[in-house]
Amino acid sequence: MAALDRVKVLVLGDSGVGKSSLVHLLCQNQVLGNPSWTVGCSVDLRIHDYKEGTPEEKTYYIELWDVGGSVGSATSVKSTRAVFYNLLNGIILVHDLTNKKSSQNLYRWSLEALNRDVAPTGVLVTNGDYDREQFADNQIPLLVIGTKLDQIPETKRNEVLTRTAFLAEDFNAEEINLDCTSPRYLAAGSSNAVKLSRFFDKVIEKRYFLRDGNQVCQFS
């Protein structure tokens, strides 16, 4: 069997939001029994059929890079993480739906990865206002995933999901909300599964195809 082409997708977010559980669910289709803190970075593989069911269908490896979630502001911490940001093709931003702070920190995480070669410019979000121009030229596909959906009381669910919908809009990204302890949220044919597949297709297109559909040769 010929070696499969692959793309690199970063999985970013605060410690404790469930990135490792999410990656395990995406790659193994199983619930992670005893998740532990990720030190540095952990990489897992998912097989994805690009444009499944069409004449253009082709199988790729999706490398999911689960980056440790310390939000430390020290330059040394960010410099250490920067080595994982090279040659990225897509980003999954993960936040805890029960923790508003983890949602707000996604702005910092995304800009840290996308502007890895640029010195920090200070406050990114002020009084809840977000500068959309910071992402105006971004060509890296983004996906926002909210975890711990099961832990939100029914009486507050609409309020929380309305807030996170605006978050995804800021990133010009699709949004998936789920419970990482239940594979049914990503069941084949579900709206979440369709969104995930569409995101991976977009990542592959950005990596291997020009906008007019002609394939380009790129080697990492």
TrEMBL record:
Entry keyword annotation includes Iron-sulfur: no
Keyword Cell division part of the UniProt annotation: no
TM helices/strands, residue ranges: none
A Gene Ontology molecular function term of the record: GTP binding
Gene3D superfamilies for this protein: P-loop containing nucleotide triphosphate hydrolases
InterPro entries: P-loop_NTPase, Sigma_54_int_dom_ATP-bd_1
Keyword terms, alphabetized: GTP-binding, Nucleotide-binding
Family affiliation: Belongs to the small GTPase superfamily. Rab family.
Stated role: Required for KRAS signaling regulation and modulation of cell proliferation. Regulator of KRAS prenylation, and probably prenylation of other small GTPases. Required for lymphocyte development and function. Not required for myeloid cell development.
Name of the protein described by the UniProt record: Rab-like protein 3
Annotated organism of origin: Podargus strigoides
Gene, per the UniProt record: Rabl3
